[in-house]
Amino acid sequence: MQTESQRRVFFDHAATTPLDGRVLEAMLPFLRENHGNPSSLHWAGREARAAVDNARAQVAQLLNAQPEEIIFTGSGTEADNIALVGAALPLSHIIISAFEHPAILETAGFLESQGVAVTRLPVTPEGLVAPAALEEALRPETRLVSIMAANNVVGTLQPVGELAAVARRKGVWFHTDAVQAVGKVPLDMVRQPIDLLSLSAHKLYGPKGVGALYVRKGVKLNPILHGGGQEKGLRPATENVAGIVGLGAAAAIAQKEMSDEAARLVCLRDDFIETITAAIPNAYLIGHRHRRLPGHVCFGFAGQENDAIQLMLALDGEGLAVSTGSACSGKHSSAPSHVLQAMGFDALRARGLLRISFGRFNTQAEIEHFAAVLPRLAAGLRPLTSSRLSGARG
Ligand code: PLP
What we know:
Layout: H1 4-7, E1 9-10, H2 21-31, H3 43-63, E2 70-73, H4 76-88, E3 93-97, H5 102-113, E4 117-121, H6 131-137, E5 142-146, H7 160-169, E6 173-177, E7 196-200, E8 211-215, H8 241-279, E9 283-285, E10 296-301, H9 308-317, E11 320-321, H10 338-342, E12 354-357, H11 364-389
Parallel strand pairs: 1-11, 3-4, 3-5, 5-6, 6-7
Antiparallel strand pairs: 2-8, 7-8, 9-10, 10-12
Helix pairs in contact: 2-8, 3-8, 4-5, 8-11, 9-11
The structure holds pyridoxal-5'-phosphate (PLP).
């Protein structure tokens, strides 16, 4: 008989990813014997500095950037804040999309409170930002455009190269929150005129609490933190050496394995979508059918919108971890998703989504098991829904 822990399967890689064992191995010496501060001039400091420099080169390589263009940060959120606040203050105009992660939305809200004008671009029902809409929104005083590379809820991939080119033609800096995209799809700073890019280690099988900001040579940001001058003064604090080493190792693995891994996940994802839409008559895919992250699926269930959380909990009861939105909205997940509302869903439909994100260590057998369990659990909720819908909430 299977034990509870043997049955557990993680299908919530958009929330976070497990630490790859190879990343852990790379980090361990810097949690044990190599404890130096990279700013120290002695042997211990030099060892730590060499490790940080090596990680910087690994992250730069993944992005086809220069090592000196990589600034290590404490998270993806911090990278987003350094980029937006550092570029937009004092008074200016910035453009974001309406369905950004809170790390961008809330920062833009803060900037607005400081007198910065913010335009929130609409999103198509398929979850895409149109370059023409960006073109129209640009103003002579626009300082920065920030459009996410991949949406964390619906998984759609934006045409960031095209969007960045629109901004570049007008001499406006282009930032992308690529926290969900880095290590999953190719990003190339030589080919794409992106000026600033945020990433986070824990979304690419690295440790939590470490991220990076790519800052194109020549782009000057005002620091939002002040201290000892580390990371070109943009993230002045003693570096999280083990975390940074982990991010570097994760980036190197992603670079080597990304294309095979993406091809495998796309096949598993597409088979899964077909199986579920055939087995559950009211299931519909949210977001563009193909322009989406390789392992990312987002379903709505017509007429069962209020039951998404119940379905997620029922799956959890079977050991299957999925989500009803972003991990950050977990505390108030019965509220309509701002992402779906930006895509034109009404408040009821915007409440009912199931996000399933497959990852590196998921097997075909695990996904087939999931595809068999989900229709059974969704069907189990149906009678409850119809009685509820004919009641107070109808
Ligand atoms: N941006 C996006 C698109 C994300 O999905 C996340 C995390 O969920 C973040 C930013 C925040 O990254 P971190 O958790 O490293 O602060």
